[in-house]
Structures are given as structure tokens and as C-alpha cells.
Amino acid sequence: MSRITIAQLEAFFWTATTRSVDQAAKRLHLSQPTISLRLKSLEAALETNLFDRVGRGIRLSSDGLALLEDAREVLDGVQRIASQKNDGRVGGRIRVGFSEGFAIICLSPILAKLHRLYPDLSPELMVSTTPFIEPDLHARELDLAFLVNPTEHGDFRLVPMGAQPTSWVASARWDLPSVVTPHDLMSHPIISNPIGSINYRQVRGWFASAGLSPKRLDTCNSVAMLAHLVNTGVAIGVYPSKMAERELEDGTVRLLNTVPPIPDTPVFAKYPFDAESPNARACVNTVREVLAELNYLTALSV
Questions:
Q1: N or C: which end of the chain has fewer CB within 10 A?
Q2: Would you say which domain of life the source belongs to (predicted)?
Q3: Domains of the chain (ranges, CATH numbers)
């Protein structure tokens, strides 16, 4: 068997996770022919086809699927070795806040990857909406937080992660038009997160764009419960589109095509300037890696 290289495994891993040679090339800052060449070399070394052609796309073959987890473990090991810098090893306690909607979608793979990469790191997690997390972060009761639309603060660094696709979501039982305007929802029960949250501002701002206010606007501090109330048809609300994936497949809810649309919501890592540490850097880098694997967040508009 020919020698297998880290570069070949990277090309394979990112092509497999993004399901696209072009996206893998962008992720690795390489040309598409370079990625294709590395994949062919890897297949030749293993004497098997790792991908099957499906129309104009690709999918993992059975051998490719078997290789994926092994490739992930190798690349995780390389990242773990690279993270051990002269300024200290990663380990011990780190107190991390996560905005709830973002956490529902991303926290499981983030925590699993942290466990693999940094077995000596012990995250203590706080999950809530940004207005509830930020006071604890500013009081130094948290070391780091991943927040939706956080406020600026002179003592804290904001690191952009991307923008979270967000939509109006309604039970399929509601009889709504194909294109929905504030006039169409004004008389329906609406639910949002509490006053002060970006979710509340999104809802109020959307109706205000037409000079309107909803006749009924209830609030709930939990994004998960908000989504549950929407799923059961009690109210209509705004939350991350991916949270509705399973219900969309079941046909129990629909993402509303609205005018105006709901903008994607920005997600940032936030931590004190004077408290940057190997633990914080490890968390931020791991979250970036997981978001790239999930291909979840969109680019932040400038």
C-alpha cells in the first residue's frame, strides 16, 4: 500500500462532510483540481472507491463511510498535537455560555469534539438567551460565551463566527398564504423571547416595518419551549430555521416565506481581553471546526 498522507485525509474528510469537492477546496484554501488529485491518490493507496456519483453530486461509498470516522480521529489527533503550545496546555475548568437556539443545534457535536481533542478540559455550561448570559460574562462568572447578537463592551473581545439562518415558523394547521406579510400575521397569536432579546426585537421590528403591532404577543424565556408551542399550533414564532428540520420533514410545520424576510442572526464568541487562555482558544477553534463540518452558519454581512 502506498503511503497515506494527512493532506489526503483532509481532502477526503472535508469532501465527505461538505459533500462537495468545491466546498472542500474552499475550506482548505486549495484549488479544486488539487483536492481531486488528493482524493484519487488516496483511493489508489486504499485500492477502493470512496465516493459514488449521484447525478451531479457525490455521496460516500460503503468503504468511504467506513473510513470517515478513522479520518476524523486522525485529524483530531493532529489538531490536538498542534494545540499544545508553549504558553500552556489545555485542561481544567472552563465556564462557557451558549445562546440556547445555537446550543440546541450545535452543542452536542461541539462537546463531543472537545471531549475527543481535550480530554483534560472540563467545560461547565450555561445555556440561556443572550440577555441572561451576558451579565454573568461581564461579571466574570463565565470565561467565554457564544452569543447571538451580543452587545459591545470595551473590556471584551467579539470574535465573529457567522450568521444563523432564522425564519418565521408556523404549524401547518394555520391557513396562511404562500407569501406572508405582517398584515397576514397581525391577528394570529405570536410568541417571542422576552423584551430585550434579539428575538423580541426581530418580531417587533418585522411588524413595525408595516406600521403594525401583533394583537397578541406572548413571551417565553426558553427557545426550546417557544419552538414547542409553535410546533403544537398554539402560536407562531421566529427561531433558527434548522431547529424546525424534523417537523418540516414530518410536514407538521412550515418555514414561512415572508416579506420582509427575517435576517440571519449574527453569532459571536465573546471573552475578556485580559483573560484569553489556551482553554478559551481551544473552545473557539473547536466551535469553528464544528461549524465548518456542519456547514451551518452563513457569512456575516459587512
A1: C
A2: Bacteria
A3: 6-83 (1.10.10.10), 92-164+265-294 (3.40.190.10), 166-258 (3.40.190.10)
pTM of the model: 0.74
At residue 143, the pLDDT reads 95
Task: Report the alpha-carbon distance of residue 103 to residue 128 in Å, rounded.
Answer: 9
List per-block mean pLDDT (blocks of 10 residues) for the chain, which spans 302 residues: 84 87 84 90 90 85 88 80 64 95 96 94 96 94 95 90 96 96 97 95 97 97 96 97 95 97 95 88 94 86 56
Beta bridge partners of 52: 59
